[in-house]
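User: If only I could read backbone structure tokens as easily as an amino acid sequence. Underneath my words sits a plain record pairing an amino acid chain with its backbone structure tokens. This is the protein in question:
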Amino acid sequence: MGKKVALGALAVAIIVPGSLWLLRDTSLVKRSETLSRMTSFSFTDKTTRARFMIWGMALQATKERPILGWGQENFAEPFVKYYNPNLFDQEAWFDRAHNAFLDWLTAGGIMGLLSYLFLFGSAVWILGRAWHKKAFTLTEALILAVGLFAYFFQNLVVFDSLVTYLLFFTILAYIYHRLERPSTVLKASGDAIEEREEKGKFILPAGLGAALLLALIVLLSKNLSLFSTAALFIYGIVALAYLFTGGIAQHAQKTSDALGGRALMGSGGLLIVMGIIVYFANIIPIAQAKDLIALLNARMSQESVPDIIEKTQAAVDRGGFGTTEIREQMGTRAQEILDPRFVAFILNQFEDQLRSFPNDPRARLFAATLYTRAATQNPEYLRKAGEHLQYAIDHGQKRQLTYHALAEYFLRGNDVERALAAAQTAVNLAPQFDEPYAIMVQIAILGGRRDATQKILAARHTEPVLLRAADTYTQIKNDEAAIKLYEELTALSPTSTEYHARLVGAYQRVKRYDDAIREAKILAELDPAQFAEGAKAFIEEMRKLKSQ
């Protein structure tokens, strides 16, 4: 019977993935994002290429610090230093190598990687011992072994998270528990298995006592609601109480009451320590996350700025792991509104961050960008931006994002030549991308360099670059120059409602009403559901203006 079940499971494991692969080009699979992702793989795929590049960067970083690595949560530093410019079309920052083994090699060096691999090796060895001692049946041992091997191979292309760590260490604990303190003693007799459970009579009261103790700590902290506290108990405390008191309670049954009492007192001490750890490592970061969500949802206005500053400071003062994220997210909001009070507050936050973590490249670039964009508020800001950018360039010379920030800094200081030179450096790092050209043409237009603008457009005559140039001309109110480019864009992509809509607005601003009416009609034809009604009202308005 067991062999039939195993063969059936094996057949399903082969047939289901194989069938999905054969059906990968059907509408059924393509309509489903999950199925489509499961059946699409290519070494030339964008995300696959990115992983190979990140792995190469991680290996380069390991050559510099091979023994102990760069330290935990410090991947951003080697990421910037050994950045591959061909990653430009990916997300701006990677904090992991997307390979758990390379993550440990980069963070902990060879010693860290060996320690991580030791967990897998010891788990398999202990599992083998447990099966040999009949603490596991063969089926149980094989299931756990296959799970460990699947997790091992999965980690070749992904990084660990809290969820995967919880499952991994729970399996390790379970294997060890079955070997050393089996709660169920198995005795094989032919095909029959007799089970005898050993239960500790103190598990339930000790577990409830531990849960109530941590409940009191959480409620007094006022960091979480009563509902969240209850959820936290269910998630972790009962499990902790069981793990720390279960074996001790069993032992207490077999020894004197005095020894059992001392064992339970020691267990209670361990639970108090665990409660403190959970408070600082879990509860405070959760509270910070709630604070950040509320801050991001808050409406920013001149009147609300003092209140938002106060709440941001309160969130930072909690001192949890979310402090960096709070500063970065609120730094982005500061760039959007540029309120002098909020800008000064956030800049002070970034300076505090850099005093604690001077090698943090993200905080340095955030600070430099905000200093640059708020330079009109304080003459000192531009100097500070230059200092941070120089440090960023010195510690990572192949990253386009840094050169774009440097170009913006020079442009803000009216040094157009050096701004264009910085933008050109970004282009040269990976000439296959449009965005660096688009940024360079934007700088040329804003700097009043018509010759440079024409040269860039001739070198990179693509839609993204043309669109950025046209939008920049619109920004500086040179609608005639913008119209020429929008007309060219509509010729390149006649069905693009985005280009036609921009052209309508440009024609209206220069009072070319007939041309605006023509483009409005085209919009209505291209997308009647979205534009037909609005186009009709717009055309009537244009005809009234024309008749005046």
